[in-house]
Design goal:
It is a single chain. The protein has one domain: 2-Layer Sandwich (Alpha-Beta Plaits), CATH 3.30.70. About 20% of the residues lie in helices and about 35% in strands. Helix 1 runs antiparallel to helix 2. The longest helix is centred in the C-terminal third of the chain and has 11 residues. The radius of gyration is 14 Å and the shape is elongated.
């Protein structure tokens, strides 16, 4: 089992979550579409060669984003990450994947 966490701008929150859920991620027992989300502020500065969805090359940009956390089985984690990347508006979405211990 894995914990999958990604950050997404507020205006793309639901479409990106739906893409990840469609991959099969976010299931806990007899429940699906399970996640926790928290609102915050992301910051980045696009470098030369970037094609930012938001902001301009060389300028620091601050954006209202959501941190979305969910679980995913071993056999679906690669598909879940791929679905998030495909649906996400950023060139380089920020995300983490942790393998969970079975205690």
């Amino acid at each position: 089992m894995y914990k999958f966490v990604f950050f997404v701008p507020a205006d793309h929150l639901e479409p990106v979550k739906e893409a990840v859920f469609a991959s099969g991620a976010g299931r806990i027992g007899d429940y699906e579409h399970c996640c926790f989300q928290s609102k915050g502020e992301g910051q980045f500065r696009p470098l030369e060669g970037a094609q930012p969805h938001i902001g301009k090359v060389g300028d620091i940009e601050k954006v209202v984003e959501y941190r979305v956390e969910l679980v995913c089985t071993d056999d679906l984690i690669k598909a879940a990450v791929a679905a998030m990347k495909l649906a996400h508006p950023y060139e380089e979405p920020a995300y983490d994947v942790w393998q969970l211990a079975d205690i």
